[in-house]
Design goal:
Elements (H helix, E strand, L loop, with lengths): L22 H20 L10 H10 L4 H19 L1
Helix pairs in contact: 1-2, 1-3, 2-3
Length: about 90
């Protein structure tokens, strides 16, 4: 029993990697995560307690205009507050 060649070839991906998220929103999402690292490094003598200021500022600035950046800033904020408590 022979298999036709068109059934063996997988279909092309339906959407590109990264979806339809604009590059500017992805960049702001990256800044949200990196700002937490920068805040922790700058306040290392205080146990890095300013690690949540950067993500909080980005979330407050971008929460209305950029949903992906807002989501990433909230994730960074949640993670860093949890780590500061722990």
């Amino acid at each position: 029993m022979s298999v036709p060649p068109e059934s063996v070839v997988p279909p092309p991906p339906s959407e590109p990697i990264g979806g339809d998220i604009p590059a500017e929103e992805r960049t702001w999402g990256m800044f949200a995560h990196l700002s937490a690292l920068l805040g922790a490094l700058l306040t290392a003598s205080f146990w890095g307690l300013a690690c949540f200021i950067g993500p909080l500022a980005i979330w407050l600035m971008k929460k209305e205009s950029m949903p992906f950046a807002s989501d990433q800033a909230k994730e960074a904020l949640n993670f860093n507050i949890t780590m500061a408590i722990g």
